[in-house]
Write a structure and sequence with these properties.
This protein is an alpha/beta fold. The protein has helices spanning 45-64, 67-83, 85-96, 100-120, 159-171, 184-197, 211-220, 233-242, 268-280, 300-314, 333-348, 399-407, 422-431, 466-469; strands at 13-15, 18-20, 25-29, 36-41, 127-129, 137-144, 147-151, 174-178, 204-206, 224-230, 249-253, 258-262, 290-296, 352-355, 370-373, 390-396, 411-412, 414-418, 436-439, 454-455, 458-459, 472-479. Helix 1 (45-64) packs across helix 7, helix 2 (67-83) packs antiparallel against helix 5 and helix 2 (67-83) packs across helix 6. One of its GO terms (biological process) is gamma-aminobutyric acid catabolic process.
């Protein structure tokens, strides 16, 4: 893959408007080929603290700009992202492995969040509230929280950054982005475009290095007033504990174990088509992807047959640069081992492999798209998030049974179900213990929608008008001394 604008491929951190190296660095490897992509700095504690200080120094100047001035700069950044869509997709595909066409769609999603929040910057409204005491008024103001840190994952290395950074910047906050060590180059390319867009020094920073060290410094710093994290539930809980002493604002978008429920009255063609996208997008490495397929008994065999046929017909494994390949690798060998463990456990307990089930030989961390039949609740895959291209099919008979199985998980991020019954659509949605519900669709993400979950899937929302609230503090002013008699 050729990058047209070589200025986008950076191997330094971006701090306070400057590109900086460090004494230590680490390698980034292409999961499709296991070949070296490049190196980025591994910042030490002193360098991380200096980056935080620079963001704090920039905050007063940035928040003092008008909302329209911030909006205009975000709009320039949005335009540059779209102008460099092919290069950004190429960088992402090489370090993360997803096919170029899929990477192009993510770049478009990444840009959409910047565009959305460029507009929302101008719509941060307060309130004037009548008061029971004469001569006084209650005024509610909304102000930027301060320095914000965004800790982002490798599976969507561009869109998860702008979903956090764009609202923070729109509100008047300054941002430190800590990308995954698997995919730092996408974040650094965004920084290069932010610099070209004219974002002032210190407003958007990218720091790289050892995750535990950076997370600890960010959590303990009293200059950092907000952390937004996307990643595993285990790490999210640890981060929440670390933030306790400084009582900073926190958003956590954590693991998922989404049920995909198909009722007997569903449009079967639609359900199969949406299942393909929901489950196998990004090789199943999606927090909101379908993890448990609950299919009602009368249509179980028909759904299984069609799904297996589509999997066998549609997917070609290969690196992002491969013409005609539409499924990339898993991120590393540990991911493959986890998938293999779940499949072995399921088969040992009575499940059948209808297709797939094996890693592909040769370089790269490729695993065949897999469908498991006759899966039951005793199996590991019924309780663990998979994060791989495996579709386990469960049977159910009654609506209440499907609801009980769906809600039995500790996770509560996304759920999907398919039915033509409008009453069931409302009733089932209101009883599912999930932050997002797709009815007759397998795709949920949109810049206009509030993205987030319940229970062990986290706290807070990203995207939509609600995403702005995560980066704002509410201040109440009681205005007294108002003497109406002089008017």
């Amino acid at each position: 893959m050729i990058i047209q604008d070589s200025d986008l491929f950076r191997q330094q951190c971006y701090i306070d408007g400057k590109w900086k190296t460090s004494a230590q660095s680490f390698d980034v490897v292409d999961p499709s080929t296991q070949q070296l992509v490049g190196h980025v700095p591994a910042l030490d504690e002193e360098e991380i603290l200096a980056a935080i200080a620079s963001a704090d120094d920039a905050f007063p100047r940035w928040k003092s700009l008008t909302a329209k001035e911030r909006s205009n700069l975000l709009r320039r950044w949005h335009n540059l992202i779209l102008d460099h869509q092919s290069d950004l997709a190429a960088i992402m595909s090489r370090e993360q492995g997803k096919p170029l066409e899929e990477a192009m769609r993510e770049v478009a999603s990444c840009a959409s969040y910047v565009e959305w929040y460029a507009e929302e910057a101008k719509r941060v409204y307060g309130d004037t509230i009548p008061m029971s005491q004469k001569g006084k008024r209650i005024i509610v103001l909304k102000e930027p929280v301060g320095v914000c840190a965004a800790i982002t994952p490798w599976n969507f290395p561009l869109s998860t950054i702008t979903r956090k950074a764009a609202p923070a910047i729109a509100c008047g906050c300054t941002v430190l982005v800590k990308p995954s060590s698997y995919t730092p180059f996408s974040a650094l390319a965004l920084a290069a475009l932010a610099e070209k867009a004219g974002l002032p020094p210190g407003v958007f920073n990218v720091i790289t290095g050892e995750a535990e060290r950076i997370g600890r410094v960010l959590s303990h710093s009293r200059l950092v007033r907000k952390i937004s994290f996307t990643g595993s539930t285990e790490v999210g809980k640890a981060l929440m504990r670390e933030c306790g002493d400084s009582l900073k604002k926190l958003s956590l978008e954590l693991g998922g174990h989404a049920p995909f429920i198909v009722f007997a009255d569903a449009d079967l063609d639609l359900a199969v088509e949406e299942a393909m996208t929901s489950k196998f997008r990004n090789s199943g490495q999606t927090c909101v992807c379908a993890n448990r397929f609950l299919v009602q008994e009368p249509i179980y065999d028909a759904f299984a047959t069609r799904l297996v046929d589509e999997v066998n017909r549609r997917f070609v494994l290969g690196p992002g640069s491969c013409a005609g390949c539409n499924m990339g690798p898993l991120i590393d060998d540990k991911a493959i081992v986890k998938v293999e463990r779940q499949i072995e456990d399921a088969v040992a307990k009575g499940a059948r492999i209808a297709t797939g089930g094996r890693r592909r030989g040769g370089p790269g961390f490729f695993f065949e798209p897999t469908v498991l039949l006759d899966v039951t609740s005793e199996m590991l895959i019924a309780h663990e998030e998979t994060f791989g291209p495996v579709a386990p099919l469960f049977r159910f008979r009654y609506e209440d049974e499907a609801l009980q199985i769906a809600n039995s998980s500790d996770y509560g991020l996304a759920a999907y179900f398919f039915t033509k019954n409008l009453t069931r659509a409302w009733k089932f949605t209101e009883n599912l213990e999930y932050g997002m519900v797709g009815v007759n669709t397998g795709i949920l993400s949109s810049e206009a929608a509030p993205f987030g979950g319940r229970k062990d899937s986290g706290i807070g929302r990203e995207g939509s008008k609600y995403g702005m609230d995560e980066y704002l503090e509410i201040k109440y002013m009681c205005l007294g001394g108002l003497d109406w008699s002089v008017c």
